[in-house]
Design a protein that fits this description.
The structure holds two protein chains of two kinds. By secondary structure, chain A is mainly alpha-helical. Chain A has ten helices and no strands. Chain B folds into two domains: 50 residues, no CATH class; 113 residues, Mitogen Ypm (Jelly Rolls, Sandwich). The chains are: A mainly alpha, B alpha+beta.
Chain lengths: 237, 201
């Protein structure tokens, strides 16, 4: 348990503030992807619009529950700040590469299939957190590689969302980088809230018992995403 | 990476995984698929009224607020300035390429138009009023289609016209024909603008 400077009371308060930020963010939870109004804005943009794109990136991350579920899974059992930084950096590296490459190279992936893989990443991490790989398969694939690989998938997901918006070519690079910076800001905000919440939870008795249920719940969420997206793929083909 | 102190048993993990998949499947079949896609294998969506959600999204596409509110005069005979022009605009769009073409109209000025495309194209009929903040626009009509025909009276002075985007993998040609009381049009393509003026007749 790190973060020794913070007392339990303060942790609870901070967790509350963090949760409030997420819940009060416009159109949280059900506004996955980018809303129609934002899409209309993006289509109408000519030239660089740094702040709006950064905002959209941050909004996408903070309201994108699939990314958040994966991140919760990744940092669930990371107790050391250095570990958190290491794994989150791998994830960031992965999704930045594919976000930029996807949009600039105009590589189009099917959004439903990509989102299904993102769901799979949530299931994978939940299963790994349960110790499933050791117990069931007898070995655990390298977590760093998995986080990097799924980071690449998440970036493709971000790229398809941006491509759906019919990005005007003018100022594309600046807008894309702004969006990516926004994604990192959003990820930082969300991570802070999650870390504070987790730190508080770990300080409570019974955490290890609840941890099992929490990761099973994470897997449930991942399975729901997979089923939802695969059905979407088949319906919209 | 910190190990989980007491790794749960193999059986417990498999049970948890199965339960997770089962709960997910139940949620999907009972509520999510009926509400999102109108797929309702057990009829639960109909009983719970969830399928209405899926139907609502299909019946109400984005093409809502079209006409200019409050500007259409009471009379059917609409006086117009002496800037009557006829225009034909033809553009070839590469895969995933988009273009905008807009007419300069003062408040109350009108056009009739008809555009066709060699393949379905994403379009949005919209206008940018004078003095509006940067990047602001009013959307009149949007959707996916290979043709659209209509008339339009500008509620606000500004530039009014279409955004077309080729979402397919082959080249398409969009042809717009219009007549109206505009004196100029502007094409926005590849970050450049080309202005055309129509001489007074």
């Amino acid at each position: 348990m790190r973060l020794p400077a913070l007392t339990r009371g303060r942790l609870g308060l901070l967790a509350l503030v963090g949760a409030t930020v997420i819940v009060c963010w416009p159109e949280t939870v059900f506004a996955h992807g980018v809303s129609n109004r934002d899409a209309a804005f993006v289509r109408s943009v000519r030239g660089a619009a740094v702040a709006p794109f950064a905002y959209l990136g941050a909004k996408h991350m903070v309201t994108g529950y699939d990314h958040l579920m994966f991140l919760v899974g990744v940092i669930f059992f990371l107790y050391r700040t250095s570990d958190v930084i290491k794994y989150v950096s791998l994830f960031t590296l992965g999704h930045s590469v594919t976000l930029l490459a996807g949009v600039l190279g105009d590589i189009r992936a099917n959004a439903f299939l990509i989102d299904a893989v993102i769901g799979l990443s949530v299931v994978y991490k939940g299963f790994e957190n349960l110790g499933g790989f050791e117990r069931v398969l007898g070995f655990r694939p390298d977590t760093r590689l998995a986080v990097l690989g799924f980071g690449l998938c998440h970036g493709f997901g971000l790229a398809t969302k941006l491509q759906d918006l019919s990005l005007p070519p003018h100022g594309l690079m600046a807008n894309l980088l702004s969006f990516n910076v926004g994604v990192e800001i959003g990820q930082f905000l969300a991570l802070t809230a999650v870390l504070i919440g987790l730190a508080y939870w770990r300080s409570r008795p019974g955490f290890s018992r609840h941890a099992f249920g929490a990761n099973a719940a994470l897997m449930t969420g991942g399975f729901v995403l997979i089923g939802f997206q695969l059905t979407g793929y088949m319906v919209n083909r | 990476m910190t190990e989980i102190p007491n790794l749960p048993s193999r059986k417990r993990i498999l049970v948890a995984t199965t339960v997770a998949a089962g709960v997910a499947a139940t949620l999907l079949i009972v509520a999510i698929l009926p509400a999102e896609y109108g797929i309702d294998p057990l009829g639960t969506g109909r009983v719970l009224g969830l399928t209405a959600l899926a139907q609502a999204t299909e019946a109400a596409p984005d093409q809502a607020p079209a006409t200019a509110s409050g500007v259409v005069p009471d009379t059917n005979a609409l006086a117009q300035p002496a800037t009557y022009s006829v225009d034909e605009y033809k553009v070839e769009l590469r895969p995933f390429e988009g273009v905008e073409y807009k007419y300069r109209l003062e408040q109350g000025e009108s056009i009739v138009y008809s555009w066709t495309s060699t393949a379905p194209v994403h379009y949005e009929f919209h206008g940018e009023p004078d003095g509006a903040p940067p990047k602001y626009f009013d959307s009149y009509k949007k959707g996916e289609g290979a043709a659209e025909h209509g008339g339009f009276i500008a509620a606000k002075a500004g530039i009014h016209g279409w955004f077309w985007k080729n979402k397919g993998a082959t080249r398409i040609t969009v042809t717009l024909r219009s007549a109206g009381f505009y004196s100029a049009s502007t094409e926005y393509r590849d970050g450049e603008r080309h202005r055309r003026t129509f001489p007074a007749k």
